[in-house]
Each structure stands twice: as C-alpha cells, then as structure tokens.
Design a protein that fits this description.
By secondary structure, this protein is α+β, with helices and mostly antiparallel strands. The protein is built from one helix and five strands.
Length: 69
C-alpha cells in the first residue's frame, strides 16, 4: 500500500529488517505495516489518481431465451 509519512518512524516491513521512514516521504509498504502507521496517525493512505470511482457496476439484465423443443 502506498502511504505518505507524516512523521519520521522506524518499522519492519518483513519482521526482520528495520527501515527508517522519513517524514513527507511517499513509500510502498506491506498492508499490515501501513495500517499500523495510519492507525497511529504517523502516515496517511495515498489514493491512486488513475483509479476513478465509477460507482456501481451495471447489473446484467439480459435474460436467456428458452429453447422450444
């Protein structure tokens, strides 16, 4: 998940290595670590501008015709 760091913090993306994430830096981290940073208000989630909310998908209202035998 892409997040923007609001404060400088350390975190472990894999449970082994510890990285320092710098304030105002945009980083791609595993979802679990991202949720911790966001919950603590150390970071905020970035939305992908190329993905647009187009609302609900249209329902398939086409019905099949039964074959006569």
């Amino acid at each position: 998940m892409k997040i923007k760091m609001l404060t400088t913090r350390q975190g472990s993306p894999d449970g082994i290595n510890v990285n320092t994430y710098i304030s105002d830096e945009t980083v791609d981290v595993p979802d679990e670590l991202a949720h911790i940073f966001i919950r603590q208000r150390w970071a905020r989630k970035l939305t992908d501008p190329s993905v647009k909310n187009r609302g609900k998908a249209p329902e398939n209202k086409k019905t099949r015709k039964k074959l006569k035998t």
